[in-house]
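Data availability (excerpt). All sequences and predicted token strings are deposited with the supplementary files. A representative entry, Acyltransferase family protein, is shown inline so that the format can be inspected without opening the archive.
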Amino acid sequence: MAKNVIYFKGLNGIRAIAAVSVLLSHITLALSNFGLKSNLLGYTDTGETKTLDLAGYGVTIFFVLSGFLITYLLLVEKEQTSTVSIKKFYWRRLLRIWPLYFSYLFLSLCIAIYFDISVNSSSVFYYIIFSANVPFILGTSLPFLSHYWSLAVEEQFYIFWPFFSLFRVKVMLMLSVIIIIILIWTKGFLHIYHPNSLLETIIHVSRFHCILIGAVAAMLYFLKHKLFILLTTSKLSQLLTWMWLIFIALNKFHIASFLDNELVSIFAVLLIMSQICEAPLLSMENRLFNFLGTISFGLYVYHPLLIYLLSKVLIVSNSESVLWTIIVYLLCTLLTIIVAQISFKYLEQPFLKYKKKKYTIVGSARNADRL
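Structure token line:
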């Protein structure tokens, strides 16, 4: 059983916003499948349908939040036990990710075969070994599974990350900062001198440095770094963070394409700190956000397939209908929430309880069990 329980208020709210924004964005992209216009937000410079920027950045926010929470728990575990159990860490990841991951993978393949949707058989292997980012980069993702690239990135990162936590915190911090600098510099160099190269795409998709930015924040918070805490929790910092979130929600945030995710990572840290500080300017700790944050993994995983299935039974004759557009958004959202909740209760939770009983050293009332 867990020797200590840690709970950070408001972080389920961040997780909820990120998950719902991804869901709404993908509904927008799928509106044409329902016979509706999908250009509600206009078009990009390349002529593609515009979606919510917050959705694209939502995955980056997930990465930063994951890096922060998991690193902090590892640091507390090491503080309590003088070491980190690599074996138990891997078991925790397996019991949290694998049941839903493979269940949905199997279900998606069955649905694709049933509806006679083309499946690139050579890509299946990558999904089995948690390398879905490879077919994503190559443009050979499986039906309903293109979003699995982000799960692959996290699993690849956490293969080696617990070994880093065996170092002293300051050494771990120094190494993390060095890796972040190297990755960002390499990405910038390639963007300028070798734009759209494969390596640039790999760094952009993998975003290990974004996870590391969250990890660095966890280390500084763990060390009670006074300047870091002061700068990230001040009223001015919190106000700027909320203004940034509004700009993203309105699709008004863009500085430089090759730096956007890095800047979002920094703001994500500020958002995290604004919630866990003693006096949040605006708290996201409420029953709705806690509920959505709890089932956010299911929301993220199930939504592509559910949107597709709903589009097979609901076709609108009037493409201009505002009412039907609203109905489609509501139905897709409600269906995804219902399925995610059922999945959490009957598929995920039994494994989470076993994980907590057998392999959790440092637990959390709500946060850690969702990792």
